[in-house]
């Protein structure tokens, strides 16, 4: 048993750290640290910096323009990026569609789309969930009917994250209505400029806009935009979900958030005492640190296992459940640490001399409410438990 | 033993509940609660005419209520509708002005709105920790310091302030024009403000006000507990309805045992929350007032957060949206713990008095 990284991995960690020190723009890091909303330009800017270094597509092989990194290297990179408050990589093209095209796409599709993902010409979004198909994704109803060389798509998608920035969407659509629901689903690529598509923003609980509804009315899509065979979309969807789950534990986010929380707890005072010196709050803080220490190692153990087997397995569901619970516990403490001062909406009126809370923490309640999503999206924690139960109990 | 609500209180609850559902529905509520001036002056007058404020004071002070159960009756209804009107500061002011012997009629009629400024950035909950200072310079009292997250400051005609002076902690009154006030909106709706006081002119109401301030804070915490019970009831009704009607995997999701048990857990916690609130209401004005209120506020803090988080999780993405009312209930339920003492603060107060019975 050896819990340390190999010398090569340690050297890689140092290299990533040095790169972030030199190349991550301070104003981007500050926005991330303060939990402020990033603009499309912010995200594009960071992607371009990574792409120039050849580090944008961490999960792709070298010949496709990726890094060819091992699972451990990918983990080190993610963790260092979180520590440095780098913007997160927008996953839809790079972590979701890219691996799908590499596995199931035609050569023509790979050649057309992969370079456009890397250089930012294409911003992809995801058309999976529907109002009636959330946890039960296989019940999706958006129809694609063959008409010569085209499919005609009608239906509605929802929870399309950052769709407002996208020019393309990958969708699960129904191409067969008889038989098992899973067997009639296809995976298609759609240009958002196609007539008949309407994107409407959904306002979230804390007031922000990051998800959308997408309506399709007689949208004509060339059959050549089908990925894989017709009716094999479910297999592709499952493959994609597995990739969505790398770094699903969000350990890097938790480590960074816990550090911020501890620093906050040394600044907040309750009647002459620092919050970190009040036993009840300190006990909660210590508990979540214990859980996170264990989580770090659980994550590494599963990572080592995946590296050995070549692919992550269903046990990643465990990482998603515990990882999100820990992140939410940290968000909860960061909100409650502020007392009454957590409640006002962050505003410029409360900056500077009028500051109500220590720097970087104005959005703690906003983050707490926004991050209730992490135990819902990407397969809710209830669905993850079903997956684990099936594995354990048959 | 009789747990029935008196006829008078039932009538008040019914008329207030009906008014709120007819005239302060969630769409109007959200339009008011998240935009300046964060309350609705016409609706304020309507509520006052319904007797919402008179219910906060006893008959010998011009009201028709003033008992713990009167406060619970009013705030349960306000909570059920997420009403953002600044009624809570009027309750605190009523208790303080009663103790000071001031005529309550302008407050109870709704004509004069008060805000009560006690908490500070480094002393958010405990009266004894406040640092704002009052000095008597010979030509009247002057107050300097900062009062933080003062609920109702956005809509106040008068402000009551707790400040430290040579003789202890006193209660003062100022006109809002005598302070520099930054008004802001709250993440869970409604408004508040920061008060910057720099030798602001003030009138002394009580020199030794520690006990009356604690009494007012107890009453405020009771009101918040009742507000949470009302909000939990509405949030839970929405959840149950959703579990019954939302279909996934070919059946209502309420048919899945994993969700059934969690829904039942919420039901149990809500009944516990109702019980501890009733207990605290019954003990107002007794020796056990502060301890019972702290028990209630602690339990409410835990239960309300559970209801908020679980109702979002079980209803899923839809409960993460602004458009769906459950999200606004969840925000209020979580943020109630940030007002007048959180779960830890009140737990400490209960912990300080744990001796076994002799």
From TrEMBL, chain A:
Domain Acyl-CoA dehydrogenase/oxidase N-terminal: from-to ranges: 6-120
Family statement: Belongs to the acyl-CoA dehydrogenase family.
SUPFAM superfamilies, per database record: Acyl-CoA dehydrogenase C-terminal domain-like, Acyl-CoA dehydrogenase NM domain-like
GO CC annotation, single: plasma membrane
Gene Ontology MF annotations: flavin adenine dinucleotide binding; oxidoreductase activity, acting on the CH-CH group of donors
Organism: Rhodophyticola porphyridii
Span of domain Acyl-CoA oxidase/dehydrogenase middle: 125-219
Cofactor: FAD
Protein origin, superkingdom: Bacteria
Protein name as it appears in the record: Pimeloyl-CoA dehydrogenase large subunit
Keyword terms of this UniProt record: FAD, Flavoprotein, Oxidoreductase
Pfam families from the UniProt entry: Acyl-CoA_dh_1 (PF00441), Acyl-CoA_dh_M (PF02770), Acyl-CoA_dh_N (PF02771)
Stretches assigned to the Acyl-CoA dehydrogenase/oxidase C-terminal domain: 231-393
Transmembrane segment boundaries: none
Automatic annotation (TrEMBL), chain B:
Family per similarity comment: Belongs to the acyl-CoA dehydrogenase family.
Acyl-CoA dehydrogenase/oxidase C-terminal domain boundaries: 213-352
Needed cofactors: FAD
Xref: SUPFAM superfamilies: Acyl-CoA dehydrogenase C-terminal domain-like, Acyl-CoA dehydrogenase NM domain-like
Molecular functions (GO terms): acyl-CoA dehydrogenase activity; flavin adenine dinucleotide binding
The Acyl-CoA dehydrogenase/oxidase N-terminal domain, residue ranges: 6-84
Organism of this sequence: Rhodophyticola porphyridii
Coiled coil feature spans: none
Cited CDD domains: ACAD
Keyword entries, A-Z: FAD, Flavoprotein, Oxidoreductase
InterPro entries: Acyl-CoA_Oxase/DH_mid-dom_sf, AcylCo_DH-like_C, AcylCo_DH/oxidase_C, AcylCoA_DH/ox_N, AcylCoA_DH/ox_N_sf, AcylCoA_DH/oxidase_NM_dom_sf
Name of this protein: Acyl-CoA dehydrogenase
């Amino acid at each position: 048993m050896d819990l340390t990284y190999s010398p090569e991995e340690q050297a890689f960690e140092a290299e990533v750290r040095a790169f972030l020190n030199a190349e991550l723009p301070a104003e981007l890091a500050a926005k991330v640290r303060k939990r402020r909303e990033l603009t499309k330009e912010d995200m594009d800017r960071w992607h371009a910096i990574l792409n120039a270094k050849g580090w944008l597509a961490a999960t792709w092989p070298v010949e496709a323009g990726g890094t060819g990194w091992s699972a451990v290297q990918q983990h080190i990179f993610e963790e260092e990026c979180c520590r440095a408050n780098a913007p997160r990589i927008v996953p839809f093209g790079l972590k979701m569609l890219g691996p799908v095209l590499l596995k199931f796409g035609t050569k023509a599709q790979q050649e057309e789309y992969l370079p456009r993902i890397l250089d930012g010409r294409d911003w992809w979004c995801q058309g999976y969930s529907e109002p009636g198909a959330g946890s039960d994704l296989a019940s999706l109803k958006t129809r694609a009917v063959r008409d010569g060389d085209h499919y005609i798509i009608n239906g509605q998608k929802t929870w399309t994250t950052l769709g407002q920035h996208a020019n393309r969407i990958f969708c699960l659509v129904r191409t067969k209505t008889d038989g098992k629901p899973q067997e009639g689903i296809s995976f298609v690529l759609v240009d958002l400029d196609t007539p008949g598509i309407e994107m409407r923003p959904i306002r979230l609980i804390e007031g922000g806009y990051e998800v959308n509804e997408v309506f399709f009315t007689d949208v004509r899509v060339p059959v050549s935009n089908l990925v894989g065979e017709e009716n094999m979309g479910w297999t592709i969807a499952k493959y994609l979900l597995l990739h969505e789950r790398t770094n699903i534990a969000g350990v890097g986010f938790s480590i960074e958030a816990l550090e911020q929380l501890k620093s906050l707890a040394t600044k907040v005072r309750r009647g002459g005492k620092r919050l970190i010196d009040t036993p009840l709050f300190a006990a909660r803080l210590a508990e979540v640190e214990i859980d996170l220490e264990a989580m770090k190692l659980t994550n590494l153990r599963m990572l080592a296992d995946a590296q050995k087997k070549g692919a992550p397995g269903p046990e990643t569901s465990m990482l998603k459940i515990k990882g999100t619970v820990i992140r939410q516990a940290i968000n909860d403490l960061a909100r409650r640490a502020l007392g009454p001062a957590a409640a006002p909406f962050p505003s410029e009126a409360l900056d500077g001399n009028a500051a109500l809370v220590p720097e970087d923490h104005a959005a703690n309640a906003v983050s707490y409410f926004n991050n209730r999503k992490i135990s819902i999206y990407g397969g809710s924690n209830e669905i993850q438990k079903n997956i684990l139960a099936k594995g354990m109990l048959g | 033993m009789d747990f029935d609500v008196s006829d008078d209180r039932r009538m008040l609850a019914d008329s207030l509940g009906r008014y709120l559902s007819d005239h302060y529905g969630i769409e109007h509520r959200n339009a008011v609660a998240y935009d300046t001036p964060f309350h609705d002056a016409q609706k304020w007058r309507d509520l006052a005419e319904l007797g919402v404020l008179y219910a906060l004071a006893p008959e010998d002070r011009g009201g028709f209520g003033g008992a713990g159960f009167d406060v619970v009756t009013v705030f349960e209804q306000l909570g059920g509708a997420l009403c953002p009107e600044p009624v809570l500061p009027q309750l605190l002011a009523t208790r303080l002005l009663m103790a000071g012997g001031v005529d309550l009629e302008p407050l109870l009629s709704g004509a004069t709105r008060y805000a009560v400024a006690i908490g500070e950035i480094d002393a958010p909950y405990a009266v004894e920790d406040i640092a704002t200072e009052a000095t008597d310079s010979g030509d009247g009292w002057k107050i300097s310091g900062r009062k933080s997250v003062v609920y109702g400051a956005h809509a106040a005609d008068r402000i009551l302030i707790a400040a430290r002076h040579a003789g202890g902690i006193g209660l003062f009154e100022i006109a809002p024009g005598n302070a520099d006030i930054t008004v802001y909106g709250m993440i869970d709706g409604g408004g508040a403000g920061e008060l910057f006081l720099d030798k602001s002119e003030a009138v002394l109401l009580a020199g030794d006000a520690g006990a009356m301030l604690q009494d007012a804070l107890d009453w405020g915490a009771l009101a918040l507990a009742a507000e949470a019970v009302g909000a939990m009831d509405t949030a839970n009704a929405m959840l149950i309805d959703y579990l019954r009607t939302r279909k996934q995997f070919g059946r209502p999701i309420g048919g899945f045992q994993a969700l059934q048990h969690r829904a039942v857990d919420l039901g149990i916690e809500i009944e516990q929350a109702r019980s501890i609130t009733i207990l605290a209401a019954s003990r107002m004005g007794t020796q056990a007032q502060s301890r019972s209120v702290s028990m209630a506020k602690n339990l409410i803090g835990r239960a309300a957060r559970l209801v908020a988080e679980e109702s979002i999780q079980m209803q899923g993405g839809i409960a993460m949206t602004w458009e769906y009312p459950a999200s606004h209930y969840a925000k209020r339920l979580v943020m109630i713990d940030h007002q007048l003492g959180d779960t830890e603060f009140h737990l400490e107060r209960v912990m300080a008095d744990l001796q076994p019975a002799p």
